[in-house]
Amino acid sequence: MINKPPKELIDHIVKDRTIRTNVTRGSHQWFFTIYLPHYITFPSAPFHEELFNITEDKNIKNAVIVAFRGSAKSTIITLSYPLWSILGKEQKKFILILGHTMYQAKIYMNNIKEELETNALLRADLGPFREEKEEWQAYSIVIPKYNARITCASYEQGIRGLRHRQYRPDLIICDDVEDLESVKTPEGRDKVYDWLTGEVIPSGDRDTKLIVVGNLLHEDSLIMRLKNKINEKKFDGVFRAYPIMDDDGNIAWPGKFTSMIEIEAERIKIGNEVAWQREYMLRIVPDEDRLINPEWIKTYDEIPEEKGNDFRFNAIGIDLAISKSEKADYTAMVAAKVYGHNETLRIFILPNPVNERLSSLEAQQRAESIWNSLKDSGPTKIFIEDVGYQGSFIESLKSKNIPAEGCKVHGQDKRARLSVNTHLVQSSKVLFPESGANNLTSQLINFGFQKHDDLADAFAILLHKILEECNRPVPHIEWITISRPRRGLLQDEEDCDGWVPFPPSDWRRF
Q1: Residue 170 belongs to what domain range?
Q2: In this structure, are 481 and 465 located in the same domain?
Q3: Which of 238, 257, 280 is the last residue of a domain?
Q4: Which secondary-structure segment (H or E) carries 174?
Q5: CB 434: neighbour CB atoms within 10 A?
Q6: Residues 253 and 381 placed together within one structural domain of the fold
Q7: Greatest CA separation found in the chain?
């Protein structure tokens, strides 16, 4: 999991107990390399170095750590660190490890016991140990050589007044003390927070180190409350979050996931978009606040041909952000083909929507390019939110005979605008491509809970205008017969730039 030093150097350190003890006592990372090499399966990532530094830094009294599943955070923090804190330079005497349930606490203890029982080198330098069962059902091991104790318990248990001889807990690790059930209600969230601040933290001493490891389960969860207090300088500590990749597509652990292809394979293996967003992308996705549920997303194999299948028109929804600044929003363009009326309405979202930081000129060029790619298959309109400077963007397209229309939102916020038309997704009137729209569907499912939602905004504009177009009354049109040739008449379909309500024999330009 971390980069291995040369084998010759490791062998030399392993064989010489004096060198081994001195090296591993001063460095948690060396301790991991020497005593736990069987956990090193991939080259390390920069965030692993940060985790080791957090454990070694005496100036960090409190740390809150969130990292994607499979990142090795628990291996470093909940397994390796307690052992090193005893054997290493910190010389901790009472380590308290807390999970949400006793089952979790037992797993933490079993992992530590297994290393002390089966790891010959670690047992020789750290052992022997004896196991003890507390009256209050906690699990403990005592290491007489260092006069130290490791106790694992759950948040359901009272831990007030805990001691190991004269020592109060001097290292407290909370690993996944919340779950989805406990964060559902304000009472549940308050209970966990009050337990941490009212029992856990006071159970320590002046120099006790606290590390909270978990996930982002709710905007008001324990992790988020601690993060906010750290940011507001009301809680002395550091907060670190390590998603599997950032918003710009940079992979956190390139030694394990070497490309986006492998990231996508991991996502497919998980098979649950909510779990992926929550456990890997570290995004808060509370079920009760979601506008679009994952199971509503339905895909199509292919789009019907335009002729003979009740084809109506092509549409492009655009959410503009005319700036290329790294902190700016993205310009998003979502295109679709529209078929049918009312009950037979079907909207096929086209793959590969635009989601980039573009200048005004680049955005116009991209909009023109999409329009040109669609116009030959039928009438094609561009819909753009008509706010402020975006009006000039619309007029610029119109000056090139491109049918662009403004979308007036009438004071609606983005969430309200999207929520109005979510029934179209739920009823499968909106269909998505099997590939090429993952970012769009992700933003729809997690709308309001991630940094960027520009594709979702463009999608909302698109649906709003499609429904507006479809609900317009159809005017009564008289068929006309042209009795003699006239200048400008078209001879066949190929000569027609658009579609008009005349019999094919009488098509004319419009």
Answers
A1: 55-280
A2: no
A3: 280
A4: strand 171-175
A5: 10
A6: no
A7: 110
Q: What is the mean pLDDT of residues 294-315?
A: 91
Is the model's pLDDT at 184 over the cut of 70?
yes
| Same-domain pairing of 307 and 188 | no
pLDDT tens digit sequence for 309-345: 889 999 999 998 866 665 667 899 999 999 998 889 9
- CA end-to-end span of the chain: 66
What domain count does the chain have?
A: 3
Q: H or E element: which one contains 54?
A: helix 46-56
CA 76 to chain centre: 23
Q: How far is it, in rounded angstroms, from Cα 88 to Cα 308?
A: 77
Angle at 247 between CA 241 and CA 253, to 5 degrees: 55
Domain closes at, from 280, 315, 347:
280
Written as one string, the DSSP assignment of 467-494 is: HHHHTSPPPP-------S--TTB-SSGG
Q: Is residue 37 part of a domain?
A: no
Least trusted range by pLDDT, from 19-23, 140-144, 186-190, 271-275: 271-275
Look-up of token digits 């507006």: 468
Strands 430-433, 346-349: pairing kind: parallel
Instruction: Determine the Cα–Cα distance for residues 470 and 342; give it in Å rounded to an integer.
Output: 8
Contacts 24+ apart (CB under 8 A), 19-24: 20/125, 21/125, 24/84, 24/87, 24/88
Q: State whether 83 and 232 are in the same domain.
A: yes
292 CB-near residues (< 8 Å, 6+ apart): 418, 422, 425, 426, 444, 445, 447
Residue 288 counted as domain residue:
no
Q: Residues 6 or more apart from 272 whose CB is under 8 A from it?
A: 294
Token pair recorded at residue 259 = 């490309």
**Amino acid (one-letter) located at 411:** G
Distance in angstroms (rounded) separating the CA atoms of residues 290 and 274: 11
Is position 510 within any domain? yes
pTM of the full predicted structure?
Answer: 0.63
Which CATH number covers residue 392? 3.30.420.240
Is 47 part of any domain?
no
* 65 and 207 fall within a common domain: yes
For residues 203 and 159, the answer to whether their CB atoms sit within 8 Å is yes
Whether residue 345 sits in one domain with residue 414: yes
Residue 409's CB is within 10 A of a number of other CB atoms, namely 16
Rounded Cα distance, 170 and 150, in Å: 11
* Buried residues in 389-403 as b, exposed as e (16+ CB within 10 A): ebeebbebbeeeebe
Q: Is 172 helix (H, G, I), strand (E, B) or coil?
A: strand
